[in-house]
Amino acid sequence: MIDYLILAEKPSAAKKMAVAFGSYQGTYAHKNFRIVASHGQLITFCEPNDHNMLKDPQLQLMTRYSSWNLEDLPWDPHDFTWKQQLITGSRKVLDQIKAATSGIEALIIATDDDP
Fold it and tell me: Where is the Toprim domain (predicted)?
């Protein structure tokens, strides 16, 4: 049984963590751990555009929010749909992470320092 699943943000971070712990799976402080890796971002906002606006036929919201002018801030969160979708190619990684979480005591989300 795995007590702690350590989720690294990317394979290179998982590799560094495995070096620090001595392997990708083992025992530390009397707890069983396993290190798994994501590959960065797995989910993104849905199309039709980067800002994911509600229907905006004249593109007024798109224009306003693309400008980053101080007079347009703060943004109104009701102007966004906030729908999300998996990034292409992420399903397999997400399924692997989900399977690895079965029966664990805790999930530790870990990052490394990229100088």
Answer: 5-114
